[in-house]
Amino acid sequence: MNTLTGVGVSPGVGVGPAHVLAYEAIVPAPGSRHGGTAEDAAAELALAGRALERVAADLEGRGARAGGEAGEILAAQAMMARDPGLADGVATLVGAGTSAARAVYEAFGHYRDLLAAAGGYLGERVADLDDIRDRAIAVIEDRPLPGVPEGTGEPYVLVARDLAPADTALLSPDVVAAFVTEQGGPTSHTAILARAMGVPAVVACPGATSIAQGTPVLVDGASGLVRPAPSDDEVTEARNAAAAREAVLASATGPGTTADGHAVPLLANIGGPRDVAAALEHGAEGVGLYRTEFLFLDRAEAPSAAEQEAAYLEVLDAFPGGRVTVRTLDAGADKPLAFLPPGAHEPNPALGERGLRLFRTHPEIMDTQLAALAAAAARSSARLQVMAPMVATAEEAAWFADACDAAGLPSAGVMVEIPSAALRASDLAVRAGFLSVGTNDLAQYALAADRQLGALTGLQDAWQPALLDLVALAAAGAAERGRPCGVCGEAAADPALACVFVGLGVTSLSMSAPALPAVRAALSRHTRQQCHLAADAARAASSPEAARAEARSHLPGLAGLAL
């Protein structure tokens, strides 16, 4: 079988026989109904309640045995299973005649859609919801719960479509040599737990579950390569490369800088206070993107100013004297808020009333958030920056900056996610104190490619020359006004592309925390001039594949990173 390629999320090399999990989700038939009487409804509701409580208790028990980060993750999953809003959704569906199993399936589907639409860190919590749902339905229908095998005498490579924390939390390197999943991302719980265990892991690896059961597999958690039936020489070569890479990463410490001393602050993207420890562990100089959606989604009422202030202050206090950039609520349209009245139907939510546009319709939400941010900043020594999502025009940038001024926030910036913002970056920077490029949405809008649609993944490639052109325009427009322009999309996590961004004029890079060491090492091995040459070569290419290859030809230091 040919070598497979995915996203390496936990470095190291693991070798062992493949154990492929073939568990299929249980989907109760649409229209499944109970008898229709009040007694039937009460019995079905009680059945659903017992199933969810059993799942929650099981997760808590596993978490208590696992301890540490795994224990925290499973405790959070148990809270999901006991969520009052979920229980209300199940009760409503059962009351309307839906069977217990189908009611659980549909109620979870609502929350699943919200998280999937949020994308990023929140989007990768979908697998957790699916696991709770599947376990509850299995209990209701008296089926075996999903699970992983016990020890087989030698560590095996666990291969699955996706993995849930309950499956992996109690495993150890003595049992599992590596994880490989077809789905997931850098901030999925498979990735988080693999790093905590020190086990190599590759996610987003198409075709992984087609590996035959028991086939020896080599997994390189740095490069993302998955090689069935490797030779002894291939295993030795991979292990030597992994050791060399670790030595390179260990040698690059301190603030981000190019080989000739050009400073490039390296920051972390986080989804809430729980992500701070990983950011600090990997040497983040601050936070380049604090997504605040976790405070607002899946709630019947908006979070209070006090609750928001506490969440913001916890992150600010973790970076005394450092930079913490908070993105104001990015919701609306495809990420509806339950505590706001539904808006008009939008046939294309990606082009609808979301981000800053939602704030203009509901200014009370923004006023509370900005007040909470100002209160938190007043109690911390960190340098708070606040930026608005989905800004399209200079007028919108000025409106947001005025709102921040009124709230007592000294540094207001904007996200560059819409091509118009990149094209007219100089105009936005008249009032915006800084710009930050969100590469995912910018690619979506520039290439008319829905970021949720797997069939269009190629158009979402951050090496698309047209996208690089837009990043260059944004950086140049900001520089014209003496403003900094960072990149906070996960494209910055690619060490080669990080060098290209520096060559395009980007002034800081923000990414998921585990990517920071490799990017720090890549920058330290190249001069600013080499970054410029790589950027020029990438922009001159006619395809993302060619752009990547041309850029890497000017970045010889990447070879030692085995990326």
Describe this structure in words.
- With 563 residues, the protein is of the alpha/beta class.
- It is 45% helix and 13% strand.
- The chain has helices spanning 38-66, 68-81, 84-95, 100-118, 120-123, 126-140, 165-168, 189-197, 232-251, 276-281, 305-317, 356-361, 363-378, 394-407, 419-423, 425-428, 439-446, 465-480, 495-504, 516-524, 528-540, 544-553, and strands at 4-5, 7-10, 13-20, 156-160, 176-181, 201-203, 216-220, 225-228, 266-270, 286-291, 323-327, 383-388, 412-416, 435-437, 485-487, 508-511.
- The strands form 2 sheets. The chain has an 8-stranded mixed sheet with strand order 1-8-7-3-4-5-6-2.
- Helix 1 packs across helix 6 and helix 9 packs across helix 20.
- It is globular and about 70 Å long.
- The mean pLDDT is 88.
Detail the topology: elements first, then pairings:
Elements: E1 4-5, E2 7-10, E3 13-20, H1 38-66, H2 68-81, H3 84-95, H4 100-118, H5 120-123, H6 126-140, E4 156-160, H7 165-168, E5 176-181, H8 189-197, E6 201-203, E7 216-220, E8 225-228, H9 232-251, E9 266-270, H10 276-281, E10 286-291, H11 305-317, E11 323-327, H12 356-361, H13 363-378, E12 383-388, H14 394-407, E13 412-416, H15 419-423, H16 425-428, E14 435-437, H17 439-446, H18 465-480, E15 485-487, H19 495-504, E16 508-511, H20 516-524, H21 528-540, H22 544-553
Parallel strand pairs: 3-4, 4-5, 5-6, 9-10, 9-16, 10-11, 11-12, 12-13, 13-14, 14-15, 15-16
Antiparallel strand pairs: 1-8, 2-6, 3-7, 7-8
